[in-house]
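Quick one, tokens below. Sequence please?
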């Protein structure tokens, strides 16, 4: 696979990972108020803890978010620079979407 094809595959995989509405919401919340713990995300999103944890694990596996432990709490932050640039564009008022 050449370099361009590899870049296309990586971009497609990133978009597949973030394309779920719950994962987009998690990412947007983290960009607005990072770091956040699971309890905060669960309360503001209204998702069951197990569902939220599943989505966070998918984001962690894709290196989109990282987790930092502080005592018993785990706080999440956005790790992927491309996501940090892309998400504000998707949700901007000037967006054509």
């Amino acid at each position: 696979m050449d370099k361009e094809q590899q870049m296309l595959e990586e971009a497609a995989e990133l978009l597949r990972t973030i394309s779920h509405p719950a994962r987009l919401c998690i990412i947007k919340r983290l960009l607005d108020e990072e770091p956040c713990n699971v309890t905060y995300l669960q309360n503001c999103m209204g998702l069951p803890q197990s569902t939220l944890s599943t989505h966070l694990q998918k984001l962690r596996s894709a290196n989109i978010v990282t987790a930092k432990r502080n005592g018993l709490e785990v706080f999440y932050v956005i790790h992927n620079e491309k996501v940090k640039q892309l998400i504000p564009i998707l949700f901007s008022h000037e967006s054509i979407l």
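The mean pLDDT is 91. Residues 3-18 form the longest helix (16 residues).
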